[in-house]
Amino acid sequence: MQGAVVQLRPEGALPVALPEVCPECGGEINKAQERWRCAKGTACALPALIEYAAGREMLDIDGLGKTYVAALVASGDVTDVASLFTLTAEQLTAASGSARRAAKLAEQIEAAKRLPLSRIFCALGILGTGRSMSRRVARHFGTMDAIRQADAAAMQDVEGIGPEKAPVIVEQVAALAPVIDRLIAAGVNMTEPQEAPAAGGAGPLTGKVVVVTGSMTGPLAAYKRAEMTALIEKAGGRAGSSVNAKTSILVAAPSSSGKPSTKAVKAAELGVEVRTPEAFAELVADYLS
After folding, report:
1. Residue 85 belongs to domain spanning
2. Which residues on adjacent β-strands are paired with residue 29?
3. Pair 272, 243: CB distance under 8 Å
4. What pLDDT does residue 160 have?
5. What would the DSSP string read from start to end of 247-268?
6. The whole model's pTM is what?
7. Hey, how many other C-beta atoms are within 10 angstroms of the C-beta on 227?
8. Residue 1 located in a structural domain
9. What is the layout of strands, in order, in the sheet containing 238-240?
């Protein structure tokens, strides 16, 4: 059985008081589950949620920074992620203080409507679904409608989602039904493009776990961590975070010091294939943007 090991407590230890209200907004706490949450849900810390949603890896509304988000939330014009897609030119101008900046924001918001489902799903801010997991969910189900119909058992079919995380995701998707409905009404894309397999019937990384370390060079110079993860998954592989016995390939950029990285040393010890960014780019050439 698990529990507190009282005899190991240091002398003078003080009990930790459980919060009576949400530490973020001072509102009520939902204690229905093992993990307590603010009863307001995503409405709690709304500015932070909107800033997150507008980020480069989600909706990519580059001009929507903290100041403008704060103004839109304070005015009541933005109450959730879906509100972004119904903002008028007048509302954007009032928040940004410039009709020119408002026009640019409007262009970026319109472009965000056409993004893949994985980006939209990630922007919802569901616990346990960062960028990589959102891609897996979107690619597994294909459409938002299929995601909404999935129960906890179906959600566990997604790689990386276990019996504890699955019901939490399902519950949050259900709770966000009004927001999702409004996104649909605003014309936001709700499908994930399915990558065509390579000529041989499978991608060059099918069944392989790929770990990336260092800043990419050559054809991959513009690829950051999120783009590399997406590239690996498009080519049929799975992105790993650390080198271990399950790692198939380590993509290692040369270090400025000339010394191999810790991951490169580990890969050598385990006999893992190591490729430079240029060599890896040749392997996945058909999948480069």
Report:
1. 42-112
2. 38
3. yes
4. 81
5. --EEEEPPPTTSSPPHHHHHHH
6. 0.69
7. 14
8. no
9. 238-240, 209-213, 249-252, 273-275
